[in-house]
Amino acid sequence: MCSMDEFLTSLMPNHGPTQLAWYSGVTKYQWLVLVIASLGWVFDVFEGQIFVASMNEAMQELLPDASTLSEAQRAGRLSYYNNITFGAFLLGGALGGVYFGMVADRIGRAKTMVLTIAMYSGFTFLSALSQEWWHLAIFRFLVAIGVGGEWAVATALVAEVFPKRARAWSLSIFHASSVFGTILAVAAGAFIIAEREFTIAGFQVSSWRLGFALGMLPALLIIAIRMKLTVEPDTWKKSREADGPRTAGRLSAIFSQELRIRTLVGVTLAAVGLATFWGAHIYGKDTLRQAIEQEYLADNSAAPREQVIDDNFGSIKRWEMLGMLLVTTGGGLGLLCFGPISERFGRRPAFLFFHLAGLISTLVLFQFLTDVRILLVALPIFGFLTLGMHAGYAVYFPELFPTHVRGTGAGFCFNIGRIIAAPILFTAGWMQHDWGYSLRDTASLLSVLFLVGVAVLFFAPETRGTELPE
Questions:
Q1: How many C-alpha atoms does 466 have within 13 Å on its Cβ side?
Q2: Which residue in 120, 94, 52, 191 sits closest to 415, CA to CA?
Q3: If you placed Cys at 146, which of 8, 119, 339, 347 could pair as Cys (CB 3.0 to 4.6 Å)?
Q4: Higher confidence at residue 306 or residue 383?
């Protein structure tokens, strides 16, 4: 832990930029590693976000007796079971991140990436076959095991392959590629899920099922990985030769006296980011949907509310997807910017900025903004400020741990954060389902968690400009 003076001093830059451009001297193979790791992360995020894009339609069909409930009861129940499913996803991600992080330290990064992609693509496809809400929740849990594992493997791989001066930039690019996964989910929502049903071979198929069926596409990436990534990083091979397989991937090692504080810092930062992501960030799109619904209702004030919403379902869904796209676009810019910001000012100042700005932007969006035109401008800013810190996990966590437990440590920090964040999802569901809070008030209250991320920075080591620990 540092004093207030030491903390404030650490927030000031202590050296200028290096003379060489960050990309100077980066080899074709290093670029190839970044591209393949990023593609894995793109599809990884798609598998998670396709549920966000289709959860209301899927759960509406899978819930028992949903048609007999009042509109308020149905909305509350949908929120409740959606959040249970979100929680299952977070728990599965935690298990997969820890387990596959350990596996990557033991058998190698490329081999483990194949296993994780096969798992998340296969179970996303099987999600399309769900017949009950709990089927979907179980499949989402299994999808998340692969999703959590892929991130841990890919961050370690990119961090070890790229030189020091390019590390923050390359890892920010890697994490920012998640935007394309969300954009794919938005496209599926706007052009597939919004159609409600498709006729295939004479059978009526719910459109959300087709959205999940697209989850098999990432399996094709496995072929590229097996063909192109034939060499493990030198740092991993040297660590294996020096320490042997028995010391690699030991979970107990990240709680040694030397690494314990680093592990706890990483877990807390991830927990704050994931709790605020699922508790506030993802609901940014719903502010635009609510605003559009109010406009339709005002234009058709004589008609029943449910009829107006049903008659304009496709249009409203596309507006919601536009909101998701705007938040995602701003978020992608935030992810890209974390690398250069943290390289210029340091890792801790970058985290500080995004946590404080995330809190302010969330409160402003959910408490004060309801006009459609203003929301179109505000949502990208909100996305930038509430998502940018997530690139910091890819940049910062590999720098906290030595090679023989880098995958284990990074995977543990990011994905145990999922377990800690899971109760926040249940709480968000209870707040809306049982306690009567609106979505806007729920997101606003949960945004206070950003302050926990500020507090933990007092304990965080600064790693800018350092070599990866051996």
A1: 16
A2: 94
A3: 119
A4: 383
